[in-house]
Amino acid sequence: MRRQYVDVARSRLASGGWSKVLDAGTKVLAPLVPMRGGRAESGPLLGTVILSYACNYRCGFCELPQRSIRRRREGWTEFDTEGWKAALRGFAALRTSGVGFTGGEPFVRDDCAELLEYSLGLGMVTHVNTNGHLLDDELIARLVGMGLDSVNISLDGADAATHDRLRGHPGSFVRVTDRLAALGRARDASKSARRTRVAITSVLTPDNADQVVALADLAERLGADSLGFIPMHEYVGREALDEVAPPRPWAEKMTRAIADLERLKSERTILENSDGYIALFSDCFAGRPSPIRCRAPESSLVVDCYGRVFPCVPMSEVDRPIGRVKGSELASFWKSDRYAAARRDLASCRACYWNCHTEMNLLWSSRDRPAAGTAR
Fold it and tell me: Are 120 and 85 in contact (CB under 8 A)?
């Protein structure tokens, strides 16, 4: 099991949140209940809010900032603060167990911390994914003080040359590692009843394949609670889900990196990924369809800053919404005929190895694992 799930559950239990942990445990079983006509038996286990596609970085593997610019020119308007609060109430009405804030870069919006606090107030496990650049000391103190469940910071290299090149922002490595260390210190000094988890996320690519162990060493020095890897997907210029994990000419070169991950998992506690997830990395790089049945449409719900709804993060990356709603309509859309039809259409999808979905799919894989080579 992914370490983050266990850590957050422990933190919630320690702060008296046993009822929410029990409810989440019940939801873990819900995707195993046969659906009637594509209708899920319970609300989503995981909600994702794409707070904004705007970003202060220009990573070579991401085109979301360009999407933000294009939409602005076309006259699109993002949810304002009240619009996002309505969406969060929609998640809460579905008894969503946890909500992850992402982007773009969520902290380009001045109301991000306010919305994180609002989500916590609704009783949902809440975390944020960020590049870390905008985390000044005041903001860090606020996040830790509110008892935010987790702050996940992207770090794609163990040295400045690698990270800055991949992130398209000179000086980002120095800034981000400094902010990670500051976040760890604030976490350790906090008097909050709930401990904020400090996590590092790294995309595994040919550019950093020889830095797996060095990244683990760095994560430990910076005081992070965990380091998690995601196998590189191809989103720039892609329009179809089947294109996001194609065969890569450099797949064989990743063998040593995967072996390093397996060794780290067995020898140290810093690595967040489950054994089952690491075992899928070679399939991803080789372009093989995932051998795991995807339950994302039954267990997750993604909403972007324009109110567009997606059943999973990869579909948001390739810009394929299944509907558009106001925040107050979120609960009814989850139960709608339209979402039921999308679940039926995606029942055989094997396109990606995205971490948050695949790690949850692995919880049910013993029952659902198809033969290798199943078409997506």
Answer: no
Residue percentage of the chain with pLDDT more than 70: 86
Do 226 and 6 contact (CB within 8 A), yes or no? Answer: no
**In the structure encoding, which two tokens stand for residue 30, read together?**
């819900």
pLDDT value of residue 14? 59
Beta strands in the chain (DSSP E): 46-52, 98-103, 125-130, 150-154, 197-204, 226-231, 300-304, 308-310, 323-324
Mean pLDDT of 241-245: 93
Residue with tokens 């489950």: 274
pLDDT, tens digit (0-9, with 9 covering 90-100), for 76-134:
999 999 999 999 999 999 999 899 999 999 999 999 999 999 999 999 999 999 999 99
d(CA 148, CA 116): 8
Q: How far apart are CA 366 and CA 300, in angstroms?
A: 20
What gap in Å lies between CA 323 and CA 333, rounded to an integer? 8
Give the C-alpha separation, 235 to 48, whole Å: 18
Cβ atoms 169, 126 nearer than 8 A: no
How many CB atoms within 10 Å of residue 147?
A: 18
How many residues does the structure list for the chain?
376
What mean pLDDT is predicted for residues 59-83?
92
Instruction: Name the strands in the sheet holding 46-52, side by side, starting at the edge strand that comes first in the sequence.
Output: 226-231, 197-204, 150-154, 125-130, 98-103, 46-52, 300-304, 308-310, 323-324
Contact 374, 289 (CB under 8 A): yes
CB 47 within 8 A of CB 124: yes
- Per-residue model confidence as pLDDT tens digits over 207-223: 999 999 999 999 999 99
